Structure formats: C-alpha cells, structure tokens
Amino acid sequence: MLLNCYQNELLEAGCDEAGRGCLAGPVFAAAVILPSDFVPGELTDSKKLTHLQRTKLRLIIEKEAIAWAVAAVDNIEIDQINILNASFLAMHRAVEQLKITPQYLSIDGNRFKTYPNIPHSCIVKGDGKYLNIAAASILAKTHRDEYMERISADYPHYQWHQNKGYPTVVHRIAALEYGLSPFHRKTFSVTQPQLELFSENEG
C-alpha cells in the first residue's frame, strides 16, 4: 500500500515527469499536493494502470487535490538544454504554477535540480511508493498523451495517437521515410541504439 507522502511535517508536493524517452513532443511534468485523508482507490504508478484507469483517476486527482499543476518543456528547449535538464525545468514550472506553495518536494527518480527555497528528496520508483508522486505521474502522463493525440492529427504517418512519440518501430520507420516533423527532438537520433532502453510505457 502506498503512503500518502514522503514526510508529514511540512506541506509536500509530489513531482513526476512523462515523455523523457520520446523522439517527439514535449516532456511534461506535474506537481500535486494531496489532502492527508485522500482515498487512493486504484491510484498507483501510472505505468501499471490502463488508459481508462488513468483517465478516471485524473478526474479524481484534479477534483480532490489541495493543489495541482502541469507544465511542459517543448522539443526545441529539450534540444537546447538536454532532456535531463528539461525534465527538471518542467518540474520547476509545475511547482511554480501551484496555487499553494509547498514546503517540501518529493521527486520521482534519483536526480533533481534544487528548487529555490524548498527542500526536496529524490525517491527512486517513488511513483510506486507515495500517492502524491503517483498522482503527479498520472497527471503528467495523461496531459502529455492528450497533447500528442491532438498534434497527431496533423502528422498521422508517425502514429503519435498510438505511440505518443515513443521510439516504436513504426515511428522510427516513418521518421526515416518522411523526415522529422517540427515536433521532433533533433538531438535524439532515430536509429540510436540507446533508445531501446526506453519502454513505450515509460513515464
């Protein structure tokens, strides 16, 4: 069973990102402050849930959270500052947009660039341990999926409505055949072997 948050002394926001391993589109991040009496239901790591479960949970989270925000860093910025820094920046932007300023941040993963004046902890696989991070993972993923489905209409051959910009075989072949779209990350090679390490269902 997931705990509500990492610590209980300070008002905490859970943070997570989605789309780090994609060939195209922005990286999205979310920050969520949950009430202490939040009822989790099916809430867990977004990668373990179906699209329908994530969609239902998004509505619950957005309704019941004390505060939540979603932000993005686009492919042009990703190419300028690299994907790791872009992930940190997206999380910073999400925290900035919260209507209530948190006193503590719990971050999914093992690295983070300190947000000004707010202490944090990095938690490996935190989206499977703490509800506020799991909630952030769901908001980041569902908002990003929605964005990729929307822009897919103008670039149907990449099939972003299905792969959401991840390096599937179909997506790679289309990128090689049709070239890169304005939404592709130019610093991500279509044929780069390391991309095999990223799962299509990754955050």
From TrEMBL:
Q: Copy out the cofactor comment.
A: Manganese or magnesium. Binds 1 divalent metal ion per monomer in the absence of substrate. May bind a second metal ion after substrate binding.
- Binding-site positions, a divalent metal cation: D16, E17, D108
List its EC numbers. 3.1.26.4
What is the catalytic activity of this protein?
Endonucleolytic cleavage to 5'-phosphomonoester
Provide the top EC class.
hydrolase
**GO biological process assignments:** DNA replication, removal of RNA primer; mismatch repair
Start and end residues of each RNase H type-2 domain: 10-200
GO terms assigned for molecular function: manganese ion binding; RNA binding; RNA-DNA hybrid ribonuclease activity
Which keywords appear in this protein's UniProt record, sorted alphabetically? Cytoplasm, Endonuclease, Hydrolase, Manganese, Metal-binding, Nuclease
Q: Where in the cell is it found?
A: Cytoplasm
Pull one GO CC term from this UniProt entry.
Answer: cytoplasm
Its chief place of residence is cytoplasm
> Where on the tree of life does the source sit, at the highest rank?
Bacteria
The function of this protein is: Endonuclease that specifically degrades the RNA of RNA-DNA hybrids.
Q: What is this protein called?
A: Ribonuclease HII
